[in-house]
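Margin note: ligand = iron/sulfur cluster.
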Amino acid sequence: MSVVQNTGEKKNWYLPGIFTGLGITMKHLFYNLLNRKKMITLDYPEQKYEYSPRFKGNHILTVKKDGSLRCTACMLCATNCPAECIKITAAEHEDPSVEKYPISYEIDMLRCVFCGFCEEACPVDAIRLGPEWQTPGLSGTNFIYDIQKLAYRPQLKGGILTHVDDEERHKAGI
Ligand code: SF4
Ligand code: SF4
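Resulting structure:
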């Protein structure tokens, strides 16, 4: 980086610098107003950016065919989370082939860094990072996502079915 110092008398004059700056701003303003299609900014929220399908946004807890949670409360995601923002309370399931399930599963979205380590750690495709990226809320409690929000929010239209089928999983011994 080079620093150019103005040592002449003009360095004490503020108005020429201010008017030059305003001139540049006005030039860009009128150029953009007359060439709206070429503008590189979007009119959010009317226009939204199309992210790649691989974008890692808000979390989803997947469900089985019967609509119940795929998660077996193994705690691998919570252990692997670098932000320590996943809190799970496990309980024993009535079905002996299921072992455990979460009675409470919470993610503090304000602490999450969307690294995807939870998704990578999960052995049963129970948690995924989906394409949603808008997370509005008026208070801190709006950003604690519970099971209802993670698995059954209206945007998921009844839940996202897991790839892992129970019968196939049991045949494979997991
Ligand atoms: S995306 Fe990363 S920071 Fe967020 S909950 Fe998963 S592991 Fe934790
Ligand atoms: S989401 Fe996956 S890794 Fe996390 S507790 Fe449930 S089964 Fe284990």
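The first strand starts at residue 59 and ends at 61.
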